[in-house]
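Comment thread on ticket #2218

A.B. wrote:
> Attaching the input chain for the structure job we discussed in standup.
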Amino acid sequence: MPFVVTQSCIKCKYTDCVEVCPVDCFHEGPNMLVIDPDECIDCTLCEPECPVNAIMSEDDVPADMQEFIELNAELSKEWPVINEMKDPPEDADEWKDKKDKLQYLER
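C.D. wrote:
> Ran it. Output below, let me know if you need it in another format.
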């Protein structure tokens, strides 16, 4: 089962996770990362690296965030691969504890 990036990543976009990914399955959008489910090898290395707990196994995605499974699959086909850590947005810390951030997703 692949891993999924959920709404906690929106407007935070910490990239600690990309440094540990052995298969470069992360893709970067304007204000969020996603995981390509076809590339993810379920190694579990990225999950503990996320400072906002945005990454979880597809099996563990809560009912109210199921749409992120499809969003990861869709957007990973559109956005470029990211495989090096970058600085987060300047206001990332202000957004890290906010809930219901899907409305802020930039495509």
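A.B. wrote:
> Thanks. Noting for the ticket: The mean pLDDT is 97.
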